[in-house]
Amino acid sequence: MDDDIKASVDKKMDLMLLQNRLGHTFKDATLLLKALTHRSHSILHNERLEFLGDSILNCVIASLLFDRYTKIDEGDLSRVRANLVKQQSLYEIAQRLELPQFLRLGEGELKSGGFRRPSILADTLEALFGAIFLDAGFDPARDAIRALYIPILDTVDPKTLGKDAKTLLQEYLQGKKISLPQYNVVATHGAAHNQEFEIECLVPKLDIQVFGSGGSRRSGEQAAAKLALAAAQKAFVKAPATPRKTKPRAAQLKLTRIATVRLDVPHAPLEAPVAAKFAAAAKAGGRAKASNPVTLSHADITTPEVAVVSTSASLNATPLMTSKLKTA
Q1: Which residues are catalytic, by number?
Q2: What are the residues facing 197 on neighbouring strands?
Q3: I want to staple 197 with a disulfide (CB 3.0 to 4.6 A). Which of 114, 121, 220, 327 is the partner?
Q4: pTM of the model
Q5: What are the start-end ranges of the E strands in the chain?
Q6: Which domains does the chain show, CATH number per domain?
Q7: How far is CA 16 from CA 19, 25, 26, 41, in A?
Q8: 283-302 tens-digit pLDDT
Q9: Mind listing the pLDDT tens digit for each residue in 24-78?
Q10: Which residues, including other chains, have CB under 8 Å from residue 194's CB and lie 6 or more apart?
């Protein structure tokens, strides 16, 4: 009798530990027990609660994503939500809660390792969400779900979450303006009902050749794409930046249309007005600045030739790097 009482107390303490982890204490403990009960254990099992909890989970996650990611469109929001509520994601949360130790399973499921089965753990977690809703309403269920999922959302990238390796590789290469990867079946191993496919993935421009394997051609391609993506990202991280080419000074002056006088080029004697202008330029450093260019009009030019690097627009002449302007 004492052993039965001790076992009952221990069970209650275990359930209190689970409720603390969920952030909700049940007013109706039978709802909690039912949520933890697999159909192999009793006819009062958790499948209806699972159905209810699945709908509540989808609603809460949709609302959470809508509020959190204001610039993401409907298609990407649906992709992220689907990834967050899929069996594998629920299974990982159930493991964090150490849910296996609280399950109520039949003898057959216990012997076959049902407490480790992802489908059973994911279904039980959804049933718990449904049980919280029936016990206290929508807000406590929402709060329990948010508390479990916000730490996950803090660590994921909504732009890539839920995308497979082939999609990520394709998008990465397109962003770098590189041709799409090539996939080839290199070999198949094993019997027809249990084949292993070895797949080659090539990105010629980056000299990438990797191999992946899987139980199907698609899974082999995904494995190869994952390796190729890692190799491509590594290649771009290691690639040195291309040095920026500097244009010659004369070319820069031509592009900015600054009139520059070449005083070192032999030329005929200049008349006083023109000479005065060139002397002022020489005094300023040999080159006229953009704010005060040397401007020559037709009236200034009476000598047969004047050597300049670029002319002012007032001469109505085509700018040349080294030109000789002749007058009639």
Answers
A1: 54, 126
A2: 188, 214
A3: 220
A4: 0.58
A5: 182-189, 196-203, 208-214, 305-308, 323-326
A6: 2-153 (1.10.1520.10), 165-238 (3.30.160.20), 249-326 (no CATH)
A7: 5, 8, 9, 21
A8: 555 444 444 554 444 444 44
A9: 999 999 999 999 999 999 999 999 999 999 999 999 999 999 999 999 899 889 9
A10: 215
